[in-house]
Amino acid sequence: MDVLAGLDACTTMEPDEGRVAAARDRLVTPEEATQLAELFRLLGDPTRAQLLYALLEAGELCVCDLTETVEVSDTAVSHALRLLRTAGIVASRRAGRMIYYRLADVHVRMLLDLSREHLRHG
Amino acid sequence: MDVLAGLDACTTMEPDEGRVAAARDRLVTPEEATQLAELFRLLGDPTRAQLLYALLEAGELCVCDLTETVEVSDTAVSHALRLLRTAGIVASRRAGRMIYYRLADVHVRMLLDLSREHLRHG
DNA sequence: CAAACTCCTGAACAGGTGCTCAAATGATAA
DNA sequence: TTATCATTTGAGCACCTGTTCAGGAGTTTG
């Protein structure tokens, strides 16, 4: 594989506005990388990951249901959910004295789904 | 949205081997969730994330090039790369006294790519 | 009202993480 | 060989993280 394959392309092709724009879109600044790391960091804990995959399967679960899916106290689950909620990874809804959590958006679902595929067929 | 939408389906439809098998494939055990968390944890550090996105853009880079993309010492970069290499996230190749690193497989590239999209259009 | 239930908050602490420094390894050049 | 370059390794340490415990807040039930 050519070490500089991507960078050498300009010696064999004329500049192209479309490709240039696409390359600029691909660039990730240190600030963006840090934001992405923050997202991954939140997914990168066994307790939180189990909660998220439980929500991926069930759609929506209350804290007491989620507590049964992991081996920690309900307090630890609550702390974990607060981190995920603050980061916009999950959303919550009150119904009586129970609070139901769900994955916040389709991107999070795709991320969890793709990662599961990576684990099994990577 | 119905809280138990997924679970109630069996009251309105006959069992279906295809759907049952698909549901079983979707289930993530605590052990799998923990493995996935380990993957996310490794992506969840600003230094490592910057290195990975640099590799995503450039294809292949030596340690000295990678050191220029982050604000830490070459030693810290080496420690970070060892973690990623041990986990099978990056692969390395020696050429003279330089060692070139690249992303290990297409799944990692897709994961980084999808996450970048999440950050920008989520 | 009080009791019961679900969930959240703050404090404290053991354990883990990522950094730098100093030293070592492997490879090329003089 | 000796010197130099690129990278790795191990030690030490400041900082961060996730947990439990104790207590509080909001909601329904008797």
UniProtKB/TrEMBL annotation, chains A, B:
<dbReference type="InterPro" id="IPR036388">
    <property type="entry name" value="WH-like_DNA-bd_sf"/>
</dbReference>
<feature type="domain" description="HTH arsR-type">
    <location>
        <begin position="28"/>
        <end position="122"/>
    </location>
</feature>
<keyword id="KW-0805">Transcription regulation</keyword>
<dbReference type="Pfam" id="PF01022">
    <property type="entry name" value="HTH_5"/>
</dbReference>
<dbReference type="GO" id="GO:0003677">
    <property type="term" value="F:DNA binding"/>
</dbReference>
<dbReference type="GO" id="GO:0003700">
    <property type="term" value="F:DNA-binding transcription factor activity"/>
</dbReference>
<keyword id="KW-0804">Transcription</keyword>
<dbReference type="InterPro" id="IPR051011">
    <property type="entry name" value="Metal_resp_trans_reg"/>
</dbReference>
<dbReference type="InterPro" id="IPR001845">
    <property type="entry name" value="HTH_ArsR_DNA-bd_dom"/>
</dbReference>
<protein>
    <submittedName>
        <fullName>Transcriptional regulator</fullName>
    </submittedName>
</protein>
<dbReference type="InterPro" id="IPR036390">
    <property type="entry name" value="WH_DNA-bd_sf"/>
</dbReference>
<dbReference type="InterPro" id="IPR011991">
    <property type="entry name" value="ArsR-like_HTH"/>
</dbReference>
<keyword id="KW-0238">DNA-binding</keyword>
